[in-house]
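Researcher: Batch entry, complex prediction.
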Amino acid sequence: MNFFETQHLTKSFGGLIAVNDLNFKVEQGEIFGLIGPNGSGKTTVFNLITGYHPISSGTIQFKDHSLNGLPTWKICKLGVGRTFQVVKPLRRMTVLDNVVASAFNHTGSLHEARDKALEVLEFCELIKKKDSQAKDLTIGDRKRLEIARALATDPTLLLLDETMAGLTPQEQAEGVELIRKIRNAGVTIIIVEHIMHVIMSICDRILCINYGQEIASGLPAEVANNHDVIEAYLGKE
Amino acid sequence: MKRIGWQTILIIALLLFPVMIGSDYYRHIFIISLMWVIIGSSWNLLAGYTGQVSFGHAIFFGTGAYTAGLCVTKLGISAWWGMLLGGPVALLVGLVIGWICFRLRGPYFALATIAIGEIFRLVAIDWRSLTEGMEGILLIQSFRSKLPYYYLALVLAAACMFAVYLVLNSKWGYYFVAIREDQDVAETIGISSFRYKSLSLMISSYFTGMAGAFYMNYMAFIDPHVVFSLHDISIMAILVAIIGGVGTLWGPAVGAFIMVWLQEIFRSAFFGLLPQWVSEAHVLVFGLLVIFVIRYLANGIVGDWSKIVGPWFGKKQLSYSSSGNGQ
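Model: Structure tokens for the complex:
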């Protein structure tokens, strides 16, 4: 059985088909890149995996569970964490409390949740900001908070939605480090990203989609040199 | 140490108050204020902390009151059984309302509570065989002295605030606030927003129902317009929390005393010092007060306390905190 697999995954909003017959597998321990031009359906794929939108047809399987039709919070309990492209800090809570709320996912004890949250904040290098209000953070720290909050739920599969967008080159380099660290801690990652040098440097395999359909998949170098991919991003000669 | 200090003083003051003050009039105002501490804190847990604004807390208050009243008129037992039953019955009503409304998000819950509140009031008026309609339910008070009622109200208010305090410092409290801040995020970190909104409503309706049952026992008279009132109960619950501070533990307690006193001062036309027409103006004053608080103290008196005392004690606080860092 595969760690994570979609079969014929399709989502239509009225007449618009946002995701069209998408099949892909993710192996345990992998960093799997999902790329494509704006509006190609990447975030919709994440929304389908996490049950935010109901699937029109097809299946999503994670470990030995089918995720079809499950509510978002149950999918989280099974071990799928996600970050949001447009960051959503719990604004009127401190950074620590944001992460504590997540850390309650597998415990009922405030003491254990706090310890877990502090550990995650240390791991994500946000510990110095733990007492700041989430609404006062810089964009770089908000992106880190998204990751910390997802990690505190103890996921085995983490969906990262453009966690590098809007960051300085320095912050991007630190972000790449963090993602590698997360993978080395045993978490499988699916990452949506526009910044090519980030994707190329950290992904084991890449799937490129356009108009909700697969146009190429494989090793980073293969996908980057694929004729259809270049055409999708840059247009025809 | 400093915090424990003022809380201990407050508790001792409230325990001694009715012994020191012999006037039944002032005792009565305090009893009503304490009752509003319960309702305000309950509303605040649901709306202030969980973000589910209710315009219908009269539903639970009236349900609790009528449960106590019907114990006497229909079951032939003491209205004090209502103190035991009023909370659970109100909780059941809350559970059903939550089950229907919490599947939706946005303002639907708030709108539904207005409608359901009016339905309860009309049913209580028209279902005469059960509720006696507008004739209401009249009992004989168990005690002539105010003291038993005062201490009962004090115990209930303290229990309610302590319960809210415990909830806020637990998993449930974190989950409630997470739902208030962003329901999508709450779901993605493993929170069933439906379940936890329902839990918050259940706690809130339970204590409000208790307050209603207490009211029946204390006032010994209820009718549908009194206990299912939109403006005297449902809106008052909101005002109490807004004035004191939505989303703060002590806000509704402070708001309750301010609002009840203000209402009483106007009702009595400043204790008879001003002409009688002033008593008609209390709704206007409430309105102006809410506008003022929302404009200048959006977090209420407790939430914006530092803003209120800041101009007078700002310097002192600054030196206190810096010396604290130095040590």
